[in-house]
Design a protein that fits this description.
395 residues; alpha/beta; Rossmann fold; 2 domains; six-stranded parallel β-sheet; 15 helices; 12 strands
Length: 395
């Protein structure tokens, strides 16, 4: 099938010079249901300047899922496609930045890519998932369809080397059309609480409550001798089976120092990070969780599993403490080590903050995305001078 020729960069640049009302759609589920993908997109939009210069474009949200039922999501998707058509017809839409994950996200976003391409609107496809296992389980015709969808994008953005290998080797996207951009998060929002001289005291888990995220393993580790009587304060924040895990904590006899916050908005998340000594995320499967980057931004030590893109960017004992997925004894030992060695706790927090400034700042992320938009859309968003999150948006 012959793909339509998108608008050239030269023509888009000429249009941008004449108009000050051009915009770029940032497409993803525009609600907390979208998880980290939504937060990345939301941070990107929050960090643009209040006023758009004539030579820049406005970044606009394009909801492709909604927060309701699967049936309602089809209506939301159709509405998104109509908005793309409308933007193409009035000449103001410069391009669409499609944030994609696996499963149903893959199929919804594929429709956005296909329709945009058919209309001659250039697309940047941003992959936010380790999609390898899901892709390999698809029937051969569907794998071919996925490869075709990825071939339609002007460029494919990945988060790290594992995703890059998958996109180039299995999805067969030419290497010169694949860009690696590491996600970015805002600066710390609240002053850090002074850490007690004794070292580790306040432990934080942030994420969806599930066994895949290692919540059960964390609770069992906290019930180990040496931790259950150590005077710890543990906050577990996130949606999911809150009552089920609260009952599990009670059955393990640790409910006296483990509290469940439920789903938290951005201001509450900032408060929890400001108060924490260590973030624990013992997940079995991740890409590069934003919550880890947010902990680094806040100078909070991190204990996590070396899965996804994490081990390619973080170093055990330097800016993070790794434990193997499912290793409850190893998780308990790592927490015990940080409790007994406050200097290591300080070192991890300090080195993590330095790494954030080098690689994970929101200003760096915005500039990297703007560079790609300018190349393929002929125009890009304009960042605020000081990038910080708005209090009115939820993570």
């Amino acid at each position: 099938m012959q793909q339509p020729t998108p608008l050239s960069s030269e023509s888009l640049q000429a249009s941008a010079a004449e108009r000050s009302d051009r915009y770029i759609y940032i497409a993803c589920p525009w609600a907390p249901l979208g998880g980290g993908m939504f937060r990345v997109a939301d941070y990107l939009i929050q960090s643009q300047a209040a006023h758009t210069p004539a030579d820049a474009a406005r970044l606009r949200p394009l909801d492709t899922r909604g927060g309701g039922s699967a049936l309602l999501s089809l209506w939301v998707l159709l509405t998104a496609l109509v908005r793309i058509l409308r933007g193409r017809l009035d000449g103001r839409l410069a391009g669409v930045h499609v944030n994609m994950a696996e499963k149903l996200s893959l199929f919804r976003k594929s429709m956005v890519v296909i329709v945009s391409n058919a209309l001659g609107v250039p697309v940047v496809l941003h992959l936010h998932a380790q999609m390898q296992r899901f892709y390999r389980r698809l029937p051969s015709p569907l794998r071919g369809a996925v490869r075709w969808v990825f071939s339609l994008a002007a460029t494919v953005v990945v988060i790290g080397p594992a995703a890059r290998r998958f996109v180039t080797e299995e999805l067969q996207v030419p290497a010169d059309r694949v860009e690696t951009i590491i996600n970015g998060v805002p600066e710390r929002m609240l002053p850090r609480r002074a850490r007690p001289a004794a070292g580790l005291k306040r432990i934080l888990f942030l994420g969806n409550l599930s066994d895949l995220k290692g919540v059960s393993n964390l609770l069992h580790a906290l019930a180990r001798p040496g931790l259950r009587d150590a005077g710890l304060e543990v906050a577990i924040a996130g949606g999911g089976d809150v009552e089920g895990y609260r009952a599990k904590a009670q059955s393990l006899g640790i409910d006296g120092f483990v509290r469940f916050e439920g789903w938290c908005e951005q201001a509450k998340t900032a408060q929890l990070l400001a108060e924490a000594d260590v973030l624990v995320l013992p997940s079995y499967d991740e890409v590069l969780p934003l919550v880890i980057l947010e902990a680094l931004a806040n100078g909070v030590a991190v204990v996590c599993c070396p899965v996804g893109e994490i081990p390619s960017l973080l170093s055990d004992g330097v800016n993070v403490r790794f434990v193997a997925p499912g290793d409850i004894d190893g998780l308990a030992a790592a927490l015990q080590q940080l409790r007994q060695r406050p200097e290591l706790l300080e070192q991890l927090g300090r080195n993590g903050r330095a790494l954030y400034e080098q690689q994970f700042s929101l200003s760096r992320f915005f500039a990297s995305v703007a560079r790609i938009h300018r190349r393929h859309f002929g125009v890009a968003g304009h960042a605020r001078d000081a990038v910080a999150p708005s209090q009115e948006h939820a993570p």
